[in-house]
């Protein structure tokens, strides 16, 4: 536990020092929420109260996805400067290192997402206490899932140039397939089938259920799928760290 806590605190301290990354992580979600939401909201009433309300859970998912995955890029940077090797030779289990990286990435992603939570009253979204707790729980589960995806992927890369390019090429399709910006139940069949394999779709659906009270997937199914992704991705990340720097 001591090693796990040390890994988490190290990454959180680095986030505090790099405040530019923290501030910039808010720009993209705010652009989607206010520019896209306000622009398309003039001709759409999805969500009952307006398009801005409809895409709010999707914007939360966008913020959590990109922030958590790009937090994992520190693993690639640490490998390049040799710091990762020092972490791997420390008397800490590889599972603790992988889990620490995943939890620290999730916590880093929750910081800008929490700022978006403050906007709830400004957007006219009045959630009951149970709905708010459900939303926070869905955000936490989504952040851990996306962070596990980032860590499991970043652990295999050695170039800080290749990783962001490849991750962007994967993250954007995952976001657009998730139904964050449109009703997934009205999408073409081929798109709905692809969304079944997208963890972002289940995370956004859980958050939309908390905000708007309706879901595409049964909530228990979404929770089970996200937990399954976390278990598999944590195992994959642990395997890479266990192999050391010979991989």
Polypeptide structure, described:
- The chain is mainly alpha-helical and about 250 residues long.
- It has one domain (about 1-245).
- The protein has helices at about 1-15, 20-25, 25-40, 50-70, 75-80, 85-90, 95-120, 130-155, 160-175, 190-195, 200-210, 220-240.
- Helix 3 packs antiparallel against helix 4 (about 50-70), helix 4 packs antiparallel against helix 9 (about 160-175) and helix 7 (about 95-120) packs across helix 8.
- It is globular, with a radius of gyration of 18 Å.
- The two termini are about 25 Å apart.
- The model has no long low-confidence stretch (mean pLDDT about 80).
The unreliable regions are: none
In whole angstroms, how far apart are the ends? 26 Å
How large a portion of the residues is in β-strands, by DSSP E? Answer: under 5%
- Helix/strand-derived category reads mainly alpha
Q: What is the mean predicted local confidence, pLDDT?
A: 81
- How many DSSP helices? 12
Principal-axis shape: globular
How are the elements arranged and paired?
Layout: H1 2-17, H2 19-24, H3 27-41, H4 51-71, H5 73-81, H6 83-88, H7 94-118, H8 129-154, H9 162-177, H10 189-195, H11 199-212, H12 219-242
Helix pairs in contact: 1-7, 3-4, 4-7, 4-8, 4-9, 4-11, 7-8, 7-12, 8-11, 8-12, 11-12
């Amino acid at each position: 536990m001591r090693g796990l806590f040390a890994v988490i605190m190290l990454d959180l301290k680095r986030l505090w020092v790099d405040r530019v990354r923290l501030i910039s992580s808010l720009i993209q979600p705010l652009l989607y929420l206010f520019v896209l939401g306000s622009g398309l909201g003039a001709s759409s009433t999805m969500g009952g109260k307006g398009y801005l309300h409809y895409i709010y859970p999707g914007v939360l998912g966008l913020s959590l996805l990109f922030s958590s995955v790009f937090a994992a890029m520190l693993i690639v940077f640490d490998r390049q400067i040799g710091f990762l090797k020092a972490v791997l030779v420390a008397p800490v289990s590889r599972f603790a290192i992988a889990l620490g990286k995943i939890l620290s990435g999730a916590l880093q992603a929750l910081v800008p997402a929490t700022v978006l939570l403050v906007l709830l009253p400004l957007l006219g979204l009045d959630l009951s206490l149970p709905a708010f707790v459900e939303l926070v729980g869905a955000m936490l589960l989504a952040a851990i899932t996306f962070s596990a995806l980032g860590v499991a992927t970043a652990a295999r890369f050695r170039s800080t140039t290749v990783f962001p390019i490849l991750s962007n090429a994967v993250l954007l399709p995952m976001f657009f397939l998730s139904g964050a910006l449109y009703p997934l139940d009205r999408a073409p069949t081929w798109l709905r089938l692809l969304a079944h394999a997208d963890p972002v779709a289940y995370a956004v659906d859980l958050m939309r259920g908390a905000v708007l009270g309706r879901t595409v997937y049964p909530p228990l199914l979404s929770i089970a799928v996200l937990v399954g992704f976390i278990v598999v991705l944590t195992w994959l990340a642990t395997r890479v760290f266990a192999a050391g720097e010979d991989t």
